[in-house]
Amino acid sequence: MGMPDLIAAVSGRSVTITTSFIAFHQWKDAPPEVAFLRNMHRHQFGVSATIAVSHGDRQVEFFTAQSVLRTIVRSGLEGRELQLSCEAMAEHIGQEMAHNGFYVEEVTVDEDGENAGTVQFMTTERRSGQSSRSADMLMVGEKVTELRTTVSEEEWKAFKEWQAREKAALHQFLRDNPVPSPSPAPFAPIQVPPGTPTE
Length: 199
Known about the structure:
Tetrahydropterin Synthase, Chain A
C-alpha cells in the first residue's frame, strides 16, 4: 500500500508566550487528605498564554506580548500571599491580556512544572453595556448544565459552594490589585558595529 498524498490545510493560527513567577498560596478549605494545603506554601508558578492570530507574519510579536504578560504577573501575583487556585490565576491573567488588546485563547498556570490549571477563553470585542463575564458565562453554561444532570444533589451543592468561594476570592483579588497599563518593553536597540555586513 502506497503512501497517501496528503495536504495540510491551515485551520487556525496562534502564538504562545511564557513566563514564571514565585508566590505563595493556600487552600483554607482543603479536605483532610491534603490538609497541608491549608498552610501558606511556596511555588514557582509557570504561565503559558496562547493568543490567536489571523496570519503568519508576526501579527503578535513575542517580546511585546511577553512584556505585557510579565507586567500583569509582577503587578498582581509575584511575591504575594494568595488565596487563588491556578485556574483563578489563569482567569485573571487571561482577562487582563484581553483588556490589553490580545485575543487570548488559553492560559495555563502550573505549580513547579508539575500540575496545572487551564482556562479557555472566547475573546470578543465588548458591546455597549456588556459585562466582562458575559461571554465566559455563555461558554460554560452548557457544560454546567451537563454537569448538573450527572452529579448528586450533595455533589452539586458542594460544587456551587466552591464556585461561589472561588468567584468571591477572585473578585476581591481584582479589587485589591488593579493592573496598571503596561509601559513599552525596555529593550535597548541592538548596536551593530560600523562596517558589519547587513546581508
